[in-house]
Amino acid sequence: QRSGSKSLSLAILHPRSIGVYNFTTIAGSTEHGDQSQVFMVYEHHLKRSAFCMVTGGFGGVDGRDFVCVLGLDGTLMFYEQETHILTRSLQNFLLPSPIVYIPHTDSFVILNSNWFLESYRYQILGEDNTEKPVPTWSYNLGESVNDMRYLGVTTTEAAIFILTDWNLYCFNETGVMKYCKRLQYTPLCCTIYSRGEPTVMSLIASDTNTLMVYEGTTLRWSAQLPNTPVAIDRGNFMGLAGCLILLTEEGDVTLCYMGTEPTMFVPPPLQESALSSSEVETKLHTLQHQIATYSQSAKNSLGAPVGRPDLKISLKVWPMLEGDSTCKLEVVIQAMTMIHSLHVNVCVTHPLVAVPNTHFVQNLGESIDLYSAVSLVASYTAPWELEANILAVYLRSDMTSGSAEASIVLPSPLVLELAPPAKESEASLYLSTPHPVILPTIFPEFGADSWNETGSNENVAGFKYKNFPDLTFTLSVNKGQQKYRIDSNSVSAITLPLNILSRKMENKSLKTAQHTFALNELLDATDNNIELRNQIRALQEKIKVGTAQMRAVQRRMLSKMRDKTPSDLTALSELITYTNDHVMQLSHDIETAQKDLRENCTRLGNLVKMTVLLIKMTGSVNAEDLKQFSEALSHTEFISESQGWAEASEAGLNYMLRTTLARSMREQYMPPFSEESVVTNSNNLKKYIAVTIDRMVKSIRREDRAVSPILEGEEDGHLKEGFHSPRPTLYEDFDTEVKKLLSQSSIAETVMSDVD
């Protein structure tokens, strides 16, 4: 407050300043109600970072409050309204702790770095600064303090309450402990109040969102809190006395009310007569029937809302202006019922990123608007999907979980921009359709000026990727031959236009015969993926050796330094320097390899998606086989030390070749892929990919063939020798099939050497 003013003011402590504000209310003359305004009266800039503050009539002043600010370094800064009057530094101070002011003794109580409670009188702190202040009293507490409170029990007696990790202490103003309450939980914060002499009530919040109410050392009541508070206090609002004010780490303020007082009457236990065995058996059968009936009826409703959904997700993409590199995504979530702990994830494929990609809402009863910005990061791989997937996970009021999802397609200008059509290309893909559509209809987001400036028109258009301008593709349409042609300087750059065409012309029956168009690139990316994972594992082993050597050299140096006879440590010092440089270089190499692996996973997802689309466009593939293939050869990123993309894909393709795509009963006995094995060689995986694609396109399924259930070699009563050896004869059959396949396709140069 200002000098000479007795009106109440609001003091707010900032990290490097403290401001005093006046709060005024203007009566409203309309239905909008009263208006409140806050304006600054004065401000003090602090020379040190502040931790907390206390107010009071320091020095025995009545009717006026002064401010004491505790800095992070243990410095006390005193202010009398607009004037800074004193700065004192405390001794034995390392980490800040709560501080309280005791008006009865005009002193401050604080915890030092030795975990001693110390009390300093204001008069002593205001004396000569050249001498260290001496505490009036001290107490060896022996543990850190979470919260510290002061309460005037009577007009002549005060109490200091200290909350630690394990106990609640009560001291009088002279440092004598009155009692100590051992807590069987982890406390977070507390507040103290009096219900009249000599009753003292303590409210303690725990890490399990539980509020404990103590009268002295006796637990009187407990209640569940709606969130996890870091500070708690009591206040009166709108004539309602005793409201609890909770503050969370996120800055949310919640007002709660405890309700009525519990009754102390405990009803006596009921005197039930013992049941006979026949009655117990009858009751047991009845309960079992009810459980079975409920379980059967709950199967269809488990994890799904009954009647109407719990929430509705609406998505909107804000229009992008010319030159924008970011797309704003709006997620509107409308709750039909009260939901809690709502997590909303925004998922996009690399190199697209969403910021923020996760939203959290504690409680939702109506609707809320969430926003994320989607942008393109630098990468040498082309994006292959423009779809953003939204997944919402939440809890209902009965504490059962629920989920909802939605998706939306992002605009093409986020990743593409028009460019002059290329005259030369390294890869060309042909698509046929009975109803071709002109190109501006497929890419309506680009304006007419951009089409004219780049020389693109309704029949031919050139594009380049914003994150890697060297990647380009040209899309042309031939209405006479009813064909689309995609030319590019890279196979992976064709996936996105192929995906856009497939989505925009879903009912136009796109066809192609180039189902092996991306197979060369896919097998090359498979080799690269396994090589990178082998490289990372080798680097990790080298780091283990290097760190072990570092520890051994350090132990040797310590042993030499402890010897009474001095010796030359130059060699050990040079060895430590060399080992440290070696380990740091290995760490940088691992970081680089992991970044390359991330880019490789994006490239793999790109090529797998293209391969699945091309196989689907052949029109001769069984839908169930294509679904299993897309799940087995997943385009999801697998970045793990134990299981990567190669392990997951080889296991899935191995299963398909042993079941639905088996040519004979004999192939069903092919050794399954071990879950614990790590793929270090790409030969088998590349064979699996090539053979699986060939059999799907040729519609070779086990149920379509008349196969004898007797294995070759079992007719004599025993299995063929070596059938379950590390390399059974079945793999030789695979080699023959792959050689035959490769001799008829364009991928022979890539895989033939591995087969031989």
From TrEMBL:
<feature type="coiled-coil region">
    <location>
        <begin position="522"/>
        <end position="556"/>
    </location>
</feature>
<dbReference type="Pfam" id="PF23339">
    <property type="entry name" value="PTHB1_CtH"/>
</dbReference>
<dbReference type="Pfam" id="PF23337">
    <property type="entry name" value="PTHB1_pf"/>
</dbReference>
<dbReference type="InterPro" id="IPR026511">
    <property type="entry name" value="PTHB1"/>
</dbReference>
<dbReference type="Pfam" id="PF14727">
    <property type="entry name" value="PHTB1_N"/>
</dbReference>
<dbReference type="InterPro" id="IPR055363">
    <property type="entry name" value="PTHB1_hp_dom"/>
</dbReference>
<dbReference type="InterPro" id="IPR055362">
    <property type="entry name" value="PTHB1_pf_dom"/>
</dbReference>
<feature type="domain" description="PTHB1 platform">
    <location>
        <begin position="411"/>
        <end position="512"/>
    </location>
</feature>
<dbReference type="GO" id="GO:0034464">
    <property type="term" value="C:BBSome"/>
</dbReference>
<keyword id="KW-0175">Coiled coil</keyword>
<dbReference type="Pfam" id="PF23338">
    <property type="entry name" value="PTHB1_hp"/>
</dbReference>
<dbReference type="InterPro" id="IPR028073">
    <property type="entry name" value="PHTB1_N_dom"/>
</dbReference>
<protein>
    <submittedName>
        <fullName>Protein PTHB1</fullName>
    </submittedName>
</protein>
<feature type="domain" description="PTHB1 N-terminal">
    <location>
        <begin position="3"/>
        <end position="262"/>
    </location>
</feature>
<dbReference type="InterPro" id="IPR055364">
    <property type="entry name" value="PTHB1_CtH_dom"/>
</dbReference>
<feature type="domain" description="PTHB1 hairpin">
    <location>
        <begin position="518"/>
        <end position="617"/>
    </location>
</feature>
<dbReference type="GO" id="GO:0060271">
    <property type="term" value="P:cilium assembly"/>
</dbReference>
<dbReference type="GO" id="GO:0016020">
    <property type="term" value="C:membrane"/>
</dbReference>
<feature type="domain" description="PTHB1 C-terminal helix bundle">
    <location>
        <begin position="625"/>
        <end position="695"/>
    </location>
</feature>
